[in-house]
Inverse folding.
């Protein structure tokens, strides 16, 4: 009987640890979503500027001086990492783990392509002094391509995270 009580107690503690870990993950996703909403607005504006710049160059017009920036939000993964370290994810449902895998894989895709973007931007900046805008055009097109990948990834993350947060909103209100 003592062994059975001990197992029940351990099971209870494991479930409580999983609840706390999952709540922290939900808060982390909420924070990351907030950061990416800001990035989304900036990137949409940059893409609009680039489109106009490309159109001007292709029509033989003198384009505005090319100036866009790129800032990468460093999204948190610490709550997920802690859940892995304390092994509390083993006590979450399969559905919760699948939802987490989807969110964090999109987040990793964003981080990977964001890191590549700095290389692309470095090449672009190195060529900004080219005297003719047509010579700069291939670099701008490459930059736009990668920026569109990041923008699409942000939009995917915002959709996934909104569905995730709506699905698990009760986690934040329960204590």
């Amino acid at each position: 009987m003592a062994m059975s009580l001990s197992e029940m107690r351990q099971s209870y503690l494991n479930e409580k640890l999983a609840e706390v870990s999952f709540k922290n993950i939900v808060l982390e996703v909420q924070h990351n979503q907030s950061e990416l909403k800001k990035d989304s607005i900036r990137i949409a504006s940059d893409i609009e500027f680039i489109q106009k710049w490309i159109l001007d160059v292709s029509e033989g017009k003198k384009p505005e001086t090319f100036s866009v920036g790129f800032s990468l939000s460093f999204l948190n993964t610490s709550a997920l990492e802690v859940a892995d370290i304390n092994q509390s994810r083993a006590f979450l449902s399969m559905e919760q783990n699948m939802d987490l895998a989807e969110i964090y894989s999109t987040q990793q895709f964003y981080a990977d392509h964001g890191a590549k973007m700095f290389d692309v931007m470095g090449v672009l900046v190195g060529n900004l002094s080219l005297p003719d805008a047509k010579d700069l055009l291939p670099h701008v097109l490459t930059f736009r391509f990668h920026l569109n990948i990041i923008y699409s990834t942000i939009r995917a993350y915002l959709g996934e995270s909104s569905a995730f947060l709506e699905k698990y909103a009760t986690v934040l209100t329960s204590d």
